[in-house]
Amino acid sequence: MGVLKHYRALLPIADKTPDVNLEEGSTPLIYLPRVSSHLGIELYGKFEGCNPSGSFKDRGMVLAVAKALEDGKRAIICASTGNTSASAAAYAASQGIPCFVLLPAGKVALGKLAQALMYGAKVIAVNGNFDRALELAREGAEKTGCAMVNSVNPYRLIGQRSGAWEICDVLGKAPDWHAIPVGNAGNISAYWAGYNEYKKLGKIEALPRMMGFQAEGAAPLVYNKPCPNPETVATAIRIGNPVSAHLARAAVQESGGEFNAVSDEQILEAQRILAAEGGVFAEPASCAPLAGLLKFKREGRLPEGITAVMILTGNGLKDPDTAMSQVGKPIEINDTLEDLMRVLECR
Ligand SMILES: *Cc1c(COP(=O)(O)O)cnc(C)c1O
Questions:
Q1: Ligand 1 neighbourhood includes 313 CB (under 6 angstroms)
Q2: Which end of the chain, N or C, is more open, meaning fewer C-beta atoms within 10 Å of its C-beta?
Q3: For residue 347, what pLDDT is reported?
Q4: Closest listed residue to residue 4, CA positions, set 123, 81, 132, 94
């Protein structure tokens, strides 16, 4: 039914708020038996790749766009590592308003670029990194009166709380560990706020530990200093100066969690394991949490038997280039049964 309708009572929605809806949210919380037994825990993946634009960004974008329209804005603008632009462009298309997206030139996964262009956004490639594109977008919004729909827009994080509510509604409790990739640090902050709200409402008793995972080449929160030249294969978290760093630090501190860094190699290994042992194809950034859990397991720091939820933030289909560079080619045969029999080994 869409996030705005599903959680209307918990969101800042008035009668005059336009009804924006692409049936986002209500994504599957998938139990992963093989990966669970490997890790000695109960592991679930919340597959945000099932959202309409293929990432969790839709949860906050739907509210940000609804509120922008309510405020009389007639266009939206954002900077993006890819998924924010895809999401903004989708909702702008559904409402018939212009959308301007600023992307770091040459650093956006193919599927995301294809989406933004197909949805009809004005796509602007900036010769600079994400952090610079964000500064420019903010200045552009100020000068033109376009609604800024990056996560500096408070409605983004409010809508994203719905992910935490869905997890608790399905599990009947919060998990022991909440494992999540951290880029601009909005999502971890939103989940923490969502869990806290549910605790205040008496819907859950205990809060999870918030475990935030960054890529080693873009880990300002792990190393506690901005990273001027972020670099990682996980382009969705290729961010050196997170806007919501203060909120994310508070979430980790208050929950007794931690930030941790994983290498690109570990991220890609986790992506293959999630697909080949879990049957779930998520984009590289989404696999940082599994890489982190595998690392904790190796270091003997993963408590036996806990329930963990990892947020699989985006769909693997968004970044086919990275996937194809990791796997072999199909086996080619002539169109004969004889050739086929040479390949089949299911006896
Ligand atoms: C945006 C995004 C992230 C990072 O989320 P933040 O709120 O910026 O920390 C992680 N993974 C994917 C797939 C994303 O699109």
A1: yes
A2: C
A3: 59
A4: 94
**Is the beta carbon of 236 within 6 A of some atom in ligand 1?**
yes
Non-local (6+) Cβ contacts of 304 within 8 A are: 40, 41
Which atom of ligand 1 is nearest the CA belonging to 314? 13
Would strands 76-79 and 99-104 be described as parallel, antiparallel, or unpaired? parallel
Q: What are phi and psi of 219, to 5 degrees?
A: -125, 55
Question: In this structure, which residue's CA is closest to atom 2 in ligand 1?
Answer: 236
Q: Model confidence over 74-94: pLDDT tens digits?
A: 999 999 999 999 999 999 999
Dihedral sign for Cα atoms in the order 264, 265, 269, 275: positive
Per residue, the 3-state secondary structure of 15-44, as one string, reads CCCCCCCCCCCCCCEEECHHHHHHHCCEEE
Query: Structure tokens of 52?
Result: 């309409």
**CA-proximal residue: ligand 1, atom 1 (nearest):** 236
- Interacting residues of 336 by C-beta distance below 8 A, sequence separation 6+: none
Distance of CA 243 from the midpoint of ligand 1 (Å): 12
**The whole model's pTM is what?**
0.96
